[in-house]
Write a structure and sequence with these properties.
heterodimer, A: 210 residues, alpha/beta, Rossmann fold, five-stranded parallel beta sheet, four-stranded antiparallel beta sheet, 25% strand, B: 324 residues, mainly alpha, MetI-like fold, 17 helices, 80% helix
Chain lengths: 210, 324
């Protein structure tokens, strides 16, 4: 078997008073893994630790494509995040949300335009590019957040209970979009969820945290 | 079982709500009534001819101009200082944060005269060398008790900086006022001193307002921005600041209105010299001192109008747009 895209090697972390017990995980390139577990077991903490948002790793290593990223800042890791509350920047229109990463990384304007229009087409956002986050439905907001996270072509996509709060129809629709985008972009994905049905629908493998 | 079912089906008796509403209306009416009576008393006291005369007085016109300029400068300075201070307190956990939070409220709690007196003593009785020693001592305590890492390195560096500065400056016996006057920034009994006298309390109110603003902005926005390649500073300027626009306007207004009403520190530190350091609050005081009650009432009414207009203008702009 080839080297994993993401490897957590006996990682323990402390965030405030919460202690994440030792955890190991390997995800192969292009694989989508759903991470499940009871409330309070540390799923979100683990994901935030992988993204570099909590500098609480007390032992172990996080390897991404063979590179030790344990102490790298979030922006240097090459990981896209879709958080539970979506967190679209309220002052930016949909187009600006999608362009945020590429512009920050100095992509030239034509490359940015092609990427953003391609994502908008794949995600069904062409008609929404000039809309503000306040004018989006829950499903549309999820699709924009997914596009924003994928715009920089990350090596790993982290989805933190990204479908929570959607009604049944929107849930099914966004789930299908996520699955389609993961396959189309060929991105490795780590999906945190409470729903067993959702995990089985989206993931190649389900990992349960105790 | 039948009895329980019977009870569930009854219409429950609820006491009428009008006594509570009456109580609310009474309290609001009493409070608003007091405010309106205070304004009305000023209006009744004004002799409109004298009011016209006093507003044409060159000293009063200078006072009005100085009030606008100093309040605006103080408000801008307060926003510039309050944004980073409030952001630090809102987003970072470190030892001594609660202490700093409390210290920042001191200007609000202190009697205004003491703010003025403290500034007067600082500028006229304390040498720059003593200032450096005091700051070095303060940062030394922060370095010892304030945690580790960057905080300790920065505070440790400031201890060395101010310690060396204190030794270099100890050759001179001059006061702080002599030194700042020497570089063209006289403070005591000077218009610049008016701004400095207004600043501590105005900035404290601005910090409170900005702290509430940043607390209400989810840190998740910065975290997402950081996964997209921002460092902390870029996440702050590109994502948080645009969201804090309304809060900054509110903080600036609060500081402006607070500076407009400042009196004690200005009187003690900058004085009330006609045509030089006199602002509207001190003009009212001077008019009362010379027994011109109608004149004082006219100026009071002008200040009330300025305060109300400022609040209305800001509410109009803040209510119209922007995020957060």
């Amino acid at each position: 078997m080839s080297n994993p895209m993401l490897a957590l090697e006996k990682v323990t972390a402390r965030v405030g008073r919460f202690v994440l017990p030792e955890f190991s995980l390997e995800i192969q390139e292009g694989e989508c893994v759903a991470l499940m577990g009871p409330s309070g077991c540390g799923k979100t903490t683990l994901m935030e630790t992988v993204c570099g948002l909590r500098n609480g790793v007390t032992s172990g290593r996080i390897l991404l494509d063979g590179v030790d990223i344990t102490s790298l800042p979030p922006g240097a890791r090459g990981i896209g995040l879709v958080p539970q509350d979506v967190a679209l920047f309220p002052t930016l229109k949909v187009r600006d949300q999608l362009e945020f990463g590429p512009k920050l990384h100095g992509w030239d304007s034509s490359e940015t335009k092609v990427r953003v229009e391609g994502l908008a087409l794949d995600l069904g956002l062409e008609m929404l590019l000039d809309r503000s986050p306040g004018g989006l439905s829950g499903g549309e907001a999820r699709r924009v957040a997914l596009g924003r996270a994928l715009a920089l072509r990350p090596r790993l996509l982290c989805l933190d209970e990204a479908l929570t709060g959607l009604d049944e129809a929107r849930h099914t629709e966004v789930l299908a979009v996520i699955r389609k985008m993961i396959e189309r972009e060929g991105v490795t994905a780590l999906h945190v969820t409470h729903s067993k049905r959702e995990a089985e629908a989206i993931a190649d493998r389900v990992v349960v945290m105790e | 079982m039948d009895q329980a079912k019977h009870k569930d089906n009854r219409i429950w008796r609820v006491r009428p709500e009008w006594p509570f509403l009456l109580f609310l209306v009474f309290v609001v009416a009493a409070y608003l009534g007091l405010l309106l009576l205070m304004v009305g008393a000023n209006v009744l006291t004004i002799s409109w001819d004298e009011a016209g005369e006093i507003l044409k007085d060159p000293d009063i016109q200078h006072s009005i101009k100085l009030t606008f300029v100093t309040c605006t400068v103080t408000a801008i300075l307060s926003v510039l200082v309050s944004v980073p201070v409030a952001y630090l307190l809102s987003r970072y956990q470190f030892r001594g944060r609660a202490l700093i939070d409390t210290l920042l409220d001191i200007p609000i709690l202190l009697p205004p005269l003491i703010v003025g007196l403290s500034l007067l003593i600082l500028f006229n009785r304390v040498s720059p060398s003593d200032c450096c020693w005091m700051l070095a001592g303060g940062f030394l305590l922060a370095a010892i008790f304030g945690g580790k890492g960057l905080v300790r390195n920065v505070t440790g560096g400031l201890v060395v900086l101010f310690g060396v500065g204190a030794m270099i400056l100890s050759v001179s016996e001059r006061s702080l006022e002599d030194v700042v006057s020497g570089v063209g920034l006289p403070m005591t009994f000077h218009p610049l001193g008016v701004v400095l006298a207004q600043f501590p309390v105005a900035a404290a109110f601005a910090v409170r307002t900005m702290r509430t603003t940043f607390d209400q902005i989810s840190p998740r926005y910065e975290e997402v921005a950081m996964t997209l390649g921002c460092n902390r500073g870029q996440a702050f300027t590109r994502v948080v600041l645009p969201l804090a626009g309304k809060g900054m306007v509110a903080a600036g207004t609060m500081a402006w209105a607070r500076a407009l009403g400042e009196f004690g520190p200005i009187l003690i530190f900058a004085g009330a010299t006609r045509g030089r350091t006199e602002v509207l609050a001190t003009s009212v005081f001077l008019e009362i001192n010379i027994g011109n009650l109608p004149g004082a009432a006219a100026l009071s009414l002008l200040m009330i109008l300025l305060a109300v207009t400022t609040l209305l203008v800001v509410r109009f702009f803040v209510g119209r747009g922007g995020a957060a």
